[in-house]
Design a protein that fits this description.
This protein is of the alpha+beta class and 119 residues long. It has four helices and three strands, in the order αααβββα.
Length: 119
């Protein structure tokens, strides 16, 4: 005859059950990089909303499926060659949020002198 244990018996020596996420931070970062990949090299000043909207949809879906506890998209920084997105992801309720940085390349004209003349 099999012996069955309840969760309260299993964790009777600990204060509370250990919270474990089914998803790692590396998995989330990889997915965010794959989401941003089609925009790599075509981003321009002010176009961050395109990728931010996709990030928000993806992270909201993870949160609704209870794969992550919470997230916050902090800022987007426009630099010479890339746009950097800072995203805080909290995997479980008892863990601190961790920062993920996603870099997406910006468009650089092959003919900058012609572009300057046309302005």
């Amino acid at each position: 005859m099999a012996t069955h244990y309840s969760n309260s018996e299993r964790y009777q020596n600990s204060e509370r059950p250990i919270s474990r996420s089914r998803l790692s931070l590396d998995n989330v970062k990889y997915d965010l990089l794959k989401i941003a990949e089609p925009y790599d090299g075509i981003m321009y000043e002010g176009s961050g909303y395109l990728v931010t909207g996709l990030f928000t949809s993806y992270l909201t879906d993870l949160q609704q499926d209870r794969l992550i506890y919470g997230y916050e998209i902090l800022e987007e920084q426009y630099k010479e060659n890339a746009v950097t997105f800072d995203i805080m992801v909290q995997l479980t309720h008892d863990r601190n949020a961790k920062k993920i940085k996603v870099h997406v390349g910006t468009y650089k004209s092959a003919w900058p002198k012609v572009k300057a003349m046309l302005k």
